[in-house]
Amino acid sequence: MEAPKVKSSRLKFKGEKHKRKRERDGGDERPRKMRKEDSDHTDEDWVQPENPLELRGPTFIYHPSDPLPCTMTYNATTGKLVISNLDESDEPILARTPSDVSQVWVLTRVAGSPTINIRTGTGEGKFLSSDAHGLCSADRDARGPQEEWTPVVLPDGMVAFQNVYEKYLSIDEVAGGAVVLRADSDEVGFRERFWVKIQFKYKKEAHEEEKQKTLKDTEPVSLDEVASNKTFQAWGMGRSVVSAADKKELKRAKKEGRLAEAMLDRRAKLKSDRFC
Fold first, then answer.
1. What angle do CA 265, 269, 273 make, to 5 degrees?
2. How many domains does the chain have?
3. How far, in Å, CA of 151 to CA of 168, rounded?
4. Per the domain annotation, does 108 fall within a domain?
5. Where is composition skewed (Basic and acidic residues) in this entry (predicted)?
6. What is the DSSP letter of 52?
7. Are 189 and 257 within one domain?
8. How many helices (H) and strands (E) does the chain have?
9. Which residue has the higher pLDDT, 117 or 236?
10. pLDDT per residue over 104-133, tens digit each?
11. In Å, how far are 46, 207, 214, 216, 243 from 210, measured between CA atoms?
């Protein structure tokens, strides 16, 4: 015989609709629609980034110019940066994907840095750079300040790229009708806005890193002084020494939010070197 179910004691009013709670898998706080779209993609699919941290790996950068969208490519034979038109297509602008390996660039970043480096996907891997006059090239083997770009994801999903001189990358038409890439714009307008596609594999990777970082930040600081001393302060042969002082001070420090500082002070008092 089954035990009777316990009824909720919450006060309800006549006509009030009952709301069912929905559990999200794996603690994913993103909207259901976004999570469903992610499940429909494979690792090699080209998708739009939602924030600057997702800009990594193979990347397709193109501009919605008229009459045909154009993209920056790298000619491995001449070693020159070239702006070329995309093939004619009935597809919407957001459905465009690269048709040649020369249209794919590789974005890398130093961990924790807001800036990225844009490297050619073909040839010897040259970095896209801009000088103080706004001239752009892709002939550098090493990265420095002139090879750093700060991506800005705009509200409509397009992306602008700012160089170290706080100027924006743009498409410019010069004499004779030729189109070149420059980086001397002070504001973001039509010429400075690009559509960017990344592979879904790297977008998913960025989400996982952000989730792990959030979990790590919310983890409580441990009061295990033995393990802490073994990690940060051990003598010869791995010998660990723990303070004999009362741990009440540590419990008090934890309530006050200064536990890490208190444990560091206790370890400092154990130092045997009087000159450090």
1. 130
2. 2
3. 10
4. yes
5. 23-39
6. G
7. no
8. 5, 13
9. 117
10. 999 998 777 889 999 998 777 889 999 999
11. 21, 5, 6, 10, 36
